Amino acid sequence: MITIGIGWLGTILYLLNHAYLSLITNWSPRVYYAGNLIAATLLIVNSVLVASWQAVVINGFWAVISLLLLMHIPLKNTPLSFRMMSLAVVFIWLAAFIGCFYDLELAIRIMGWSSALVFGAAYLLFCAQKLTQKTYLYLNVYAALALTPQLWLDRNYPVLTLEIIWALISIHGALRQPDNAHLID
């Protein structure tokens, strides 16, 4: 019962925080990063207890990045690029496609890992100011939807609900962004 409560609390906090980024024009990075750190920590606990490993990795990565930013450790010099992330996703898709011929659950797990990669890399690139807010939100749509089949199999319903609503908020936020949006300051 406590595990479920922790998971739902983390889900609600993440959604409120993501809505804040997606809907508020002059959002505060410190508020956003602090909200992500708290929500990620709650969902790490929940996901460990239900053995939902992609969700543990995603939220662990978000917690570390958020903590680094709250400690004023700059991420602008990260060697990661959008191109590198995209290439890795293509390889994961290829592995998932091949996995479909052997075991559908294996293919779903592989796709879940593509979500972990995109969520983590997109968050890092956005925080390093290497992605526009609009691109970041569209990548969040992909990552959220790519993870949902695995979360269903894991019966990780708080995070499954989070990902579905996260994708909808991300679509709404991205559509509200101008096409010529600049990188964050």
From TrEMBL:
<feature type="transmembrane region" description="Helical">
    <location>
        <begin position="110"/>
        <end position="128"/>
    </location>
</feature>
<feature type="transmembrane region" description="Helical">
    <location>
        <begin position="87"/>
        <end position="104"/>
    </location>
</feature>
<feature type="transmembrane region" description="Helical">
    <location>
        <begin position="31"/>
        <end position="50"/>
    </location>
</feature>
<feature type="domain" description="CBU-0592-like">
    <location>
        <begin position="6"/>
        <end position="73"/>
    </location>
</feature>
<keyword id="KW-0812">Transmembrane</keyword>
<dbReference type="InterPro" id="IPR058058">
    <property type="entry name" value="CBU_0592-like"/>
</dbReference>
<keyword id="KW-1133">Transmembrane helix</keyword>
<feature type="domain" description="CBU-0592-like">
    <location>
        <begin position="109"/>
        <end position="176"/>
    </location>
</feature>
<feature type="transmembrane region" description="Helical">
    <location>
        <begin position="6"/>
        <end position="24"/>
    </location>
</feature>
<dbReference type="Pfam" id="PF26604">
    <property type="entry name" value="CBU_0592"/>
</dbReference>
<protein>
    <recommendedName>
        <fullName>CBU-0592-like domain-containing protein</fullName>
    </recommendedName>
</protein>
<keyword id="KW-0472">Membrane</keyword>
<feature type="transmembrane region" description="Helical">
    <location>
        <begin position="56"/>
        <end position="75"/>
    </location>
</feature>
